[in-house]
Write a structure and sequence with these properties.
Blueprint (H helix, E strand, L loop, with lengths): L2 H15 L6 E5 L7 E5 L1 H20 L8 E3 L17 E3 L17 H32 L1
Helix pairs in contact: 1-2
């Protein structure tokens, strides 16, 4: 989208979404950032989207500048919930696609595979011995 289209959308949303009941907040419910959620009403979501669209307009205006460009967001607006756990203060321009870095928890190393194989082999041996024992037991009885 070009800047004029974005500006038109921004103006329409801002005119429609300004009210006293507008609310938006980002909260953490667990132990880290990966356990977070947004608590907002429709107008709050629309105004937060406006902030992001404004950042997109600024990126278009400042294209060709350094990759470390930081575009401020209106994180102190009256519609932002002051009880939020997380306040997004700016958007940092980045042209690079993030690379997935494997966590230690995601590793499937040889020790884990060997342990899995060993457990399955032990289970197979136990079941085999049980079956052979039952067959021998019934041969002795009959």
């Amino acid at each position: 989208m070009n800047k004029e289209e974005l500006t038109k959308i921004i103006d329409q949303i801002e005119d429609k979404s300004k009210s006293k009941d507008t609310t938006f907040g980002i909260f953490v419910y667990g132990g880290g950032e990966d356990e977070s959620y947004i608590k907002a009403n429709k107008q709050g979501l629309e105004l937060f989207a406006v902030n992001l669209l404004k950042a997109a307009c600024e990126i278009d205006e400042k294209s060709g500048l350094s990759e470390n460009l930081k575009i401020p967001l209106d994180y102190e607006a009256d519609w932002i919930d002051k009880e939020s756990s997380i306040f997004l203060q700016y958007v940092e321009l980045s042209e690079k696609k993030p690379e997935y870095v494997k966590n230690e928890n995601d590793k499937d190393n040889w020790k884990e595979r060997a342990l899995r194989f060993g457990c399955l082999a032990g289970l197979f041996i136990i079941v085999s011995v049980f079956i052979l024992g039952m067959v021998s037991f019934f041969k002795i009885l009959f």
